[in-house]
């Protein structure tokens, strides 16, 4: 009954975070710039499971002064953090309403700690906590009037709390959920511009989403992506990936009476199989920890846990692409061949290595394209790739486990 420290499919707490040091330094600079009146904004872009939500959570802890990662000279920040949740059907008006409601909720949470926060409630009371309904005494307001009300609320909040907070941070995770017609890009552009015109320079916007987020922002407002410092999260390098495993083992040995060791070969196998994807590292390490019975996780423990890890990753991310949408084993053979090339572009000639007949290869390409399992570039024929490198990594792990 040992505590298993690894968290597959979950946000990693700041105390367990590993890697991404360059991004962390850049995010601290953004906070410092905003603190001193030169507001900057950022967007974290990457595949599912790459660690966007975990990095956003770490940024929140940095912004509130809840965690320090550097020396004593590293500045303590004291921002009011406003978390917003958006859904696929969120409209432009709903984005504004949720921003106001989330601002009120953040001020409410600050209230027990800061006496002055009580004053904020007098002008934030118009925003209902759920952000569903605007104060009916205001009558039928237009979206622009509602945006002006939000900007008034932000500027007044900063004025009241200027001795207690250094600024306000708005964070939106999974910002790619709403379609371009929700006009998130337009909202961000207009909101930041109007704050600047009000001489309010201590408000930062942070978004996180899949690679399509930037396109959606641009479709909403052509120049909206320009206001963001775009940070693309790639798979972790080997040393950082190994550090994730080490942090987990250290956490386990703090909480468990019986200490657990892990051999270098076991760590190396986890890192090699995961190819830098944090959710893979967490899943492989979790299952290896569960497979162990002698307080030393070795190469064989990782191997024993691998089939369950691959199955769990498939259930969470990939089964729809590999099993549910296709029934032909020949089509899967084509996908496995593509996986050997990661997410690189390849031609039909390369795919002939899958050893299926020419007719089946032709049918496979047509079907996989039609069902959005493989990607084709606009305006170019005869070139294909898998949708994500993570899918390729999982396919390779699945193939190795089968062998």
Q: What do you see in this structure?
A:
- The protein has 15 helices and 9 strands.
- The chain has 403 residues and is of the alpha/beta class.
From the N-terminal CA to the C-terminal CA, the straight-line distance is 32 Å
Structural class: alpha/beta
Q: Mind summarizing the main beta sheet?
A: 5 strands, parallel
Total beta-strand segments: 9
Helix content: 40-55%
CATH architecture of the largest domain: 3-Layer(aba) Sandwich
For this structure, the CATH topology of the largest domain is: Rossmann fold
Shape: globular
Instruction: Give the DSSP E fraction (strand runs of 2 or more residues).
Output: 5-15%
Q: What is the average per-residue confidence, as pLDDT, rounded to a whole number?
A: 89
Oligomer designation? single chain
**Tally of structural domains:** 2
Side by side, the strands of the main sheet go: 2-3-4-1-5
> What's the total helix number?
15
Order of helices and strands: HEHEHHHEHEHEHEHHEHHEHHEH
């Amino acid at each position: 009954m040992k505590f298993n420290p690894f968290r597959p499919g979950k946000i990693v707490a700041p105390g367990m975070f590993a890697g991404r040091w360059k991004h962390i330094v850049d995010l601290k600079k953004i906070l410092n710039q905003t603190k001193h009146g030169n507001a900057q904004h950022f967007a974290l872009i990457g595949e599912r499971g790459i660690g966007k939500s975990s990095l956003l959570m770490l940024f929140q802890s940095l912004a509130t002064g809840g965690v320090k990662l550097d020396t004593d000279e590293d500045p303590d920040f004291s921002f009011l953090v406003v978390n917003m949740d958006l859904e696929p059907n969120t409209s432009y008006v709903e984005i504004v309403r949720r921003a106001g409601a989330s601002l009120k909720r953040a001020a409410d949470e600050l209230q027990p700690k800061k006496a002055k926060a009580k004053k904020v409630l007098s002008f934030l009371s118009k925003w209902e906590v759920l952000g569903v309904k605007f104060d009916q005494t205001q009558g039928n307001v237009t979206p622009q009037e509602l945006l002006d009300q939000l900007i008034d609320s932000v500027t007044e909040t900063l004025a009241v709390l200027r001795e207690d907070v250094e600024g306000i941070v708005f964070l939106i995770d999974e910002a790619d959920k709403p379609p371009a017609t929700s006009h998130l890009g337009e909202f961000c552009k207009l909101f930041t511009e109007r704050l600047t015109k009000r001489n309010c320079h201590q408000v930062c916007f942070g978004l996180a989403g899949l690679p399509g987020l930037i396109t959606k922002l641009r479709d909403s407002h052509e120049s909206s992506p320009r206001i963001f410092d775009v940070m693309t999260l790639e798979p972790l390098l080997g040393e950082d990936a190994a550090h994730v495993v080490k942090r987990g083992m250290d956490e386990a040995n703090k909480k468990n009476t019986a200490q657990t060791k892990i051999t270098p070969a076991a760590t190396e196998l986890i890192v090699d199989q995961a190819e830098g994807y944090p959710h893979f590292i967490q899943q492989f390490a979790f299952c290896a920890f569960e497979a162990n019975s002698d307080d030393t996780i070795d190469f064989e423990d990782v191997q024993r846990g691998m089939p369950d890890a691959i199955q769990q990753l498939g259930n969470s991310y990939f089964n729809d692409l590999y099993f549910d949408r296709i029934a032909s084993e020949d089509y899967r053979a084509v996908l496995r061949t593509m996986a050997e090339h990661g997410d690189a572009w390849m031609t039909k000639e390369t795919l002939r290595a899958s050893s299926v007949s020419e007719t089946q290869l032709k049918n496979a390409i047509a079907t996989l394209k039609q069902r959005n399992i493989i990607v084709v570039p606009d305006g170019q024929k005869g070139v294909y790739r898998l949708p994500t490198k993570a899918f390729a990594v999982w396919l390779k792990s699945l193939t190795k486990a089968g062998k």
